[in-house]
Amino acid sequence: MAWLYLLAYAIAALIVASFLYARWNRGVRGEIHVQSTLSPSGSPRDDLPEQVLRSAPTARAIFELDRIELKLGLVTERGTRGPAQMAGTVGATPASTASGVVPHAGWSERTIIGPLRRGPVLAAGWKLTTSDPLGLFSNRSSSTDRELALVLPRFTSLNRRVQVRELEASVAAPRTGSGTELFGVREYRPGDPLRRIHWRSSARHGELIVREFEPPGIQMLGIVCDPAPPSPDAADQIARLAASEAWDCIRSGGRVVLWAPGVEPTHRSEERNIWALLEWLARYPAVDEDATPSRPPLMRDAVAVIATADARLVDALETVKAQGGSVRGWVVGDAQPEIDAPTQQVGLGWPV
After folding, report:
1. How far apart are CA 313 and CA 225, in angstroms?
2. Does the predicted model carry a pTM greater than 0.70?
3. Is the separation of the CB atoms in 304 and 260 below 8 Å?
4. pLDDT tens per residue across span 140-165
5. Domain edges within the chain
6. Gap between the Cα atoms of 348 and 352, Å rounded
7. Sign of the C-alpha dihedral computed for residues 102, 103, 104 and 109 taken in this order
8. CATH classification for the domain delimited by 218-346, as one of 1.10.238, 2.40.50, 3.40.50, 1.10.150
9. CATH second-level architecture of 29-152?
């Protein structure tokens, strides 16, 4: 009977050793990073002034048709481990990497993804499978989907009369002044005329608030986008045209607001921020179903970029016309939406 006790002790010891061995062999994790961007000829980056490129919110502004170099890495915190494998998709492209041994310094592989399409680039469905050198155990874990990059729409100047050499001089924002159009409100500063005090806002905030007016002649352009483009290709073309209109307006000293019926417009603080406008267009026509229906923003002039007609869009354009503003439009594709404004029909190819 003694041998039965010895066998039981041996089995228990094997279970404990196996448990400790399996725990010891864990500690490998996967990483995905964007290392660099490869841009083809004709990228908007080629025509942007250096000071505008430096103001980009990320180190790598990524545009349509760019390629990105990814670093797929396996990292261990407990010394040499392995083997390990991870696989998933980046955008619509499958990607994977594996190594028989993951050293303490880590292991990595680089791969090129692209050309990219406008919109978020998601790392989705990534799974990490790890084992031990003896092949006794394996562990599989999944990572949360995340956004690796945001691909901005391509754009170009639609106003050929503006020369490239004028770009550097025209990107400086105008200062608010004493024109007739309300620019906004701010706190009172010594020396501000008392007639500019906004008494209702002052009472609400408990401090003196004054009106600020913009210099006369500054363009305030509203770009109204189709809320439901019929295809992804049409949505891409609408985003490119809207981005081009925004760039022409900003570099000539104007301000821009982007809006689509059912979508929140860009914020007033972003009216001269080309990167914020491009990000809005990169995510267009994303609609938050739970959001409160948005109202048209204030627009002095308006450009409609559409592929279909929407009653809310038409009403917004009519409001601009009734207030004396100018209205024109771009029509993408073969549809013939009826809007009471001069329009230009374009296809889906770029440049137009």
Report:
1. 8
2. yes
3. no
4. 889 899 999 999 999 998 875 333 33
5. 29-152, 181-214, 218-346
6. 8
7. negative
8. 3.40.50
9. Sandwich (2.60)
